[in-house]
Amino acid sequence: MPEVTPHHNAPEAERVEPRCPYFGSCGGCRFQDIAYAEQVARKHRRFTEQLSDVVPAELLEEAIFCPSKAEWRYRNKMEFSFSPATGELALGMHKSGSYWNVIDVEDCLISPEPFGEVMSAVRDFAARSGIDAYSSKKKSGFWRHLTLRWSETQAGVMALLITTPGERGVVDPLFEGLLRDIPCVRSLYWGINSKISDVAIPDELIHIGGEEFLIEEIDGVKLRVYPLNFFQPNLSQTRRIYRDMASLLPRTESLRIVDLYCGTGAIGLYLAFHAPGVSDVIGVEQDEGNIASAQANKEANGITEARFVATNIENRLKEDMMFLRRFSPGLIVLDPPRPGLHKKVYGPLVESGARYIFYLSCNIKSLSFDLQQIFARSRDYEIRHIGVYDMFPHTPHFETLVILEKQVRDSS
Asked: Considering the entire predicted model, what is its pTM?
C-alpha cells in the first residue's frame, strides 16, 4: 500500500480509515479519510463563507444542502492516463502533486466496478504490445489515455482509447477482445491525439465498434451520451437537481426558456418534458457536437417545442447586445463552465427581460463573483431559492443552484 500523505489537518475525531489503497498517493479523493458527515459540514461552511458577502444571512441559513446518496461508485465518467514513468507501463491516476507520475490503479472506488475489468484488459494488452506509453517529458510514445463512461440505464460501458498516431492494426485486436470478453462493453472509440499537451481530447475520433452512443434516462427523458459530450458525473444528484428545477418553475401557462451553455440540452429538455407550462426551449451552446446531440435528444423524446443555436455566447453578445432580449425569455438557465460567466454576459442578461434566472454553478467562487456583478447591474433581481448538492463525495467540490426572480417595482 502506498504511503498515506493526507491533504489536510483534520482532527483525529473526524478521521476515518480510508477505503482506497491509493489514498494519499493518488491526486483524487483527498477527503476520504474524513467521515462523510463532516465532509458535508465542511462544504456547507465553505458555501456559507464564499457567499456571505453577497447573499443575506437568512437566505444562507435557509439554503437546502443535499448530500450524495452514494458515497462510492457514483462517477459515470473517468479519465485514466498511461505512463512509462515507473519503468513499466502504468494505467491509472496522476500522483498527487505530480504532472509526470501515474499511479497504476486496479480499481477506483468512486467509479463503477466494471471499469476495473476494462482497465485491466487494456493495461495487459498495452503491456504485451511492447509499445511504449506516451511520456510527457520525452514527448514520445503511443498509449495516452483511457476514458470510460457508464450508463446506469443500460448497465453498459463506453471506452475511448486515446493514442498518438499509429496503425489501426495495433488497436483492433484490443477492441475485438473487449467486445468479445466483457459483456457490459457496449461502445468503443479510438481517439488520435498528436498534440504535445497531455489532455484527453483527441484530434480525430473514430467509432470502432458497438453502439455509437450510450443512453441515460432521467425520469423518462432519454439522453444520448457520446465520448466527448459533457454529462453530469453523478446521476443520482443530477436527477435531484433537475427535479428541484422542475418543481420550482413558475406556474405559468406560457414560459419560454433560454438555456445558455446548454450542452446536449439535458436541462431544457427535462423542463420541457416535465413542466406543462413551458411553451418552448431555446438552447445556446458553442460546441457543434453538443448541439447535434441536443437535436437528437429532442427528437428521441418527441419534444417539438425546442430548438438549439450553435454559437459562442460571449462573442455573439459582443456583436449583438440584444441577442438574449430578442428571444423574450421568461426564464434563463445558466450552467456555465468553472470560470463562470464572461463579463460580456452580465449586461445583456439583466436587460433580457427574463423574470427568472436559474443559475447552476460548479464553482462557488465564480458564482459569488457573478452574483455580485448581476446585482451591481440590477437591483430588481432577488434570490428566491438556494440548493447545494454534493456531487463529488471525498473531494472539495459541490454544485449550487440559485434561483433569481425579477421584482416588478412600483413606478409611482
From this structure: 0.93
